[in-house]
UniProtKB/TrEMBL annotation:
InterPro entries: Aminotransferase_I/II_large, Asp_trans, NHTrfase_class1_PyrdxlP-BS, PyrdxlP-dep_Trfase, PyrdxlP-dep_Trfase_major, PyrdxlP-dep_Trfase_small. One of its GO terms (cellular component) is mitochondrion. The lineage of its organism: Eukaryota, Viridiplantae, Streptophyta, Embryophyta, Tracheophyta. Belongs to the class-I pyridoxal-phosphate-dependent aminotransferase family. GO terms for molecular function: L-aspartate:2-oxoglutarate aminotransferase activity; pyridoxal phosphate binding. This is Aspartate aminotransferase. Homodimer. Its EC number is 2.6.1.1. Residues 73-440 form the Aminotransferase class I/classII large domain. PROSITE patterns: AA_TRANSFER_CLASS_1. Keywords: Aminotransferase, Pyridoxal phosphate, Transferase. In eukaryotes there are cytoplasmic, mitochondrial and chloroplastic isozymes. It catalyses: L-aspartate + 2-oxoglutarate = oxaloacetate + L-glutamate. GO terms for biological process: amino acid metabolic process.
Amino acid sequence: MHTQQSPSPSADRRLSVLARHLEPIEGHNNHSIVAAPTSGYGGTESVFNHIVRAPEDPILGVTVAYNKDTSPMKLNLGVGAYRTEEGKPLVLNVVRQAEQQLVNDRSRVKEYLSITGLADFNKLSAKLILGADSPAIQENRVTTVQCLSGTGSLRVGAEFLARHYHQRTIYISQPTWGNHPKVFTLAGLSVKSYRYYDPATRGLHFQGLLEDLGSAPSGAIVLLHACAHNPTGVDPTIDQWEQVRRLMRSKGLLPFFDSAYQGFASGSLDTDAQSVRMFVADGGEVLVAQSYAKNMGLYGERVGALSIVCRNADVASRVESQLKLVIRPMYSNPPIHGASIVATILKDRNLYHEWTLELKAMADRIIRMRQQLFDALRARGTPGDWSHIIKQIGMFTFTGLNKEQVAFMTKEYHIYMTSDGRISMAGLSSRTVPHLADAIHAAVTRAR
């Protein structure tokens, strides 16, 4: 025989709450209540039915199309990520060593970082791009915050400028990385362009660049690629950089550098930072967005930094306080793992040295791919001057191929690249260069 137990007080409370929800609303006929559009009852219409399908990202969409292709000959030259001679992603040996150190350190915890990120990472990142002996660092005129790779660094900088800088116009090169105009527009800046690439020479349109920046309103922001310009691979010479610096300082234009490839272009960390250091050396103010995606192969770790070089230490301190107010409601604080890898490598002399060797090996392989592709086109007698392939620098080459030729190469040779003819040299290998050279030769001779 079972004795019935009375409900517990907590069960009584739950039943009471449930009963209240089931009671008719006072003053309403209970039968007139209908399910809301956001509920799971009554109807199949979505509140998002009006949403149209967005187009694929023009760069990442290349990989989507590549993945659907079943041809064994397919070749993806669209996405900017380093590949080995075997076509495989590369994790640097020095990164594996740093990660092992971090794993073995039992004192490490997973607590939140501060809003500005890992202090060692910020300090070492500023030294890497500005130089260990930079007067700006010694005078505490630099504030650096850890951000979500290069894109996040650009966005934080853009949001800060939109709130606190007197000019809301930013000039970007024509062409530029496809994400640049979106980042700055969504941050609230007005985006204009300056001439940069000359299709006739497949080189720098330097006169056009000077004219456009010369006619920009005083105080406008100018986005500059520190090295290995994306997508063209065309960089100014040091003398040209000096002319740009003088022009910009004379007009009070604010430089905002995007440094995505330091050490990855020439193989030298110092050489690839020269443009930035020239602007810092004159005592003027500068913004620099850094990414460790390419030069440490930390793509998915999303490791970056934004440094703002100010007139004095007091201004830098106030700028940092406002950067915190940008970051806090955006993502609160950055992730710890990738920044810890970078800091471990940069502060250990042996690891740092090994990194520079691995970095140069990656840069040298890309330079070899440029030479091999140039030689292969010349051997085939492909019409046109292809010397721009070896003159350009960094991960990308702006081939000069048009949309129809690119489409022809995709259809007939299963080679994938962005429609503007940009190819990632890191996606090539000695084995695949002949296939690409055959495709380019066919495209320019048959699909003109």
